[in-house]
Design brief:
The protein has 23 residues and is mostly helical. It has one helix and no strands. Residues 14-23 have a biased composition (Basic and acidic residues).
């Protein structure tokens, strides 16, 4: 989700799964 992306891909509550992506 947006929060995960904003935090560098760290897993966040509410996300379906921890996606670590750096674009």
């Amino acid at each position: 989700g947006p929060q995960a992306l904003a935090d560098g891909g760290a897993p966040r509550a509410g996300e379906a799964r921890p996606l670590h992506v750096r674009l």
